[in-house]
Amino acid sequence: MAVAEGANENLNPNETKGKIITCKAAVAYGPGKPLVVEHVLVDPPQKMEVRIKILYTSICHTDLSAWQGKNEAQHAYPRILGHEASGIVESVGEGVCDMKEGDFVVPIFNGECGDCGYCKCEQTNKCERFGVDGMKKVMVNDGATRFSTVDGKPIYHFLNTSTFTEYTVVDSACVVKIHFDGDGDLNPYIKKLTLLSCGVSTGVGAAWNIANVHSASTVAVFGLGAVGLAVAEGARARGASKIIGVDINPDKFIKGRAMGITDFINPVDEEKPVYERIREITDGGVHYSFECAGNLNVLRDAFLSAHEGWGLTVLLGIHPSPEMLPIHPMELFTGRRIVGSVFGGFKGKTQLPHFAQKCMHGVVKLDDFITHELPFEEINKAFDLLVAGKSLRSLLHF
After folding, report:
1. Per residue in 46-91, pLDDT tens?
2. Which of 4, 201, 312, 337 shows the smallest number of beta carbons within 10 Å?
3. Is residue 154 part of a domain?
4. How far is Cα 186 from Cα 2, in angstroms, rounded to an integer?
5. What pTM does this model have?
6. Inter-CA distances, 240 with 93, 117, 214, 262, Å
7. 184: Cβ contacts below 8 Å, ≥ 6 apart
8. CB–CB of 59/225 below 8 Å?
9. Which residues contact 276 (CB under 8 A, 6 or more apart)?
10. What is the CATH number of the domain that holds 47?
11. Judgement on whether residues 336 and 386 belong to the same structural domain of the protein
12. Do 43 and 192 fall into the same domain?
């Protein structure tokens, strides 16, 4: 495996292994407050943990929601957010056998221990101990953090990963080693593979693993952020005949067209419900609809846009509201189905490496998802771009 030139030029495990590292991180001190880029202390990894030198990290809407404090479970400060990244293993804790210092890896928020009943079940990608958990803010080993301020105060973790930092410590169940098959060079893909930590895997996986979109099928995607566009890209790769994008931002269609979207519907411009419009142009409804907006009204439109008898709606949007599903039980007797999807149905450690190979071989196009590249110190600007709807993924580098 070839590692990007210069990627680990400042990484010398002989000098840092087993020691506390002082490095830069963007620390959240309260909901909506600008992140503070400052020096923090990062402890060595303990048993079955990995310390990673982050090369690139990007910002997802889940990070945005956490920063805004929309979910009470995320009210733990100070905290290091972030869950999309790529990096190099700096050191490993006792018992870690599937990776070593210098390996190229991506952290994942939905881990895979490989030993629990969930991991051994082929019907789920949930892990009993390391599955996605918005409540979790400390490490599994000892209930403590691996981050602290320079004066010794603890800094909490986020979504099993905490990637807005030059170094992070992650449970090994939440770290995936990536390599290029054969004699290929990994260098051209280092930054792009950052997107596999969440957005692209979540969207493409929903199309492939959860819906199993088939050739010549029809698809509707509600919400054209990075996840929604990843769904469209996954549907395009599977040969869908019609991919309808639904969003109130008309600028999204420009980017969406490159990712396979064939039709665009802006609800603001429609005189009738969106689901009626979709039924009209798809002879009764789509085979697959995907709700990526985290909005209950949008979810109902997505459900009703699916064809009676066989239509499937896949829920990807995060819904922090306590409101329940806007579906009457009797409506399920029409044959429409609805299912949720976490991390695109991928079992991270066993299946993500294969997906990475497909991306590196061009089956899935990653380049169009990266709209901005910024130095890490400009992380607040990257958040502003996301809030303004001007970015899909802003890639931050150290």
Report:
1. 999 999 999 999 999 899 988 988 765 556 899 999 999 999 999 9
2. 337
3. yes
4. 6
5. 0.93
6. 45, 35, 6, 10
7. 360
8. no
9. none
10. 3.90.180.10
11. no
12. yes
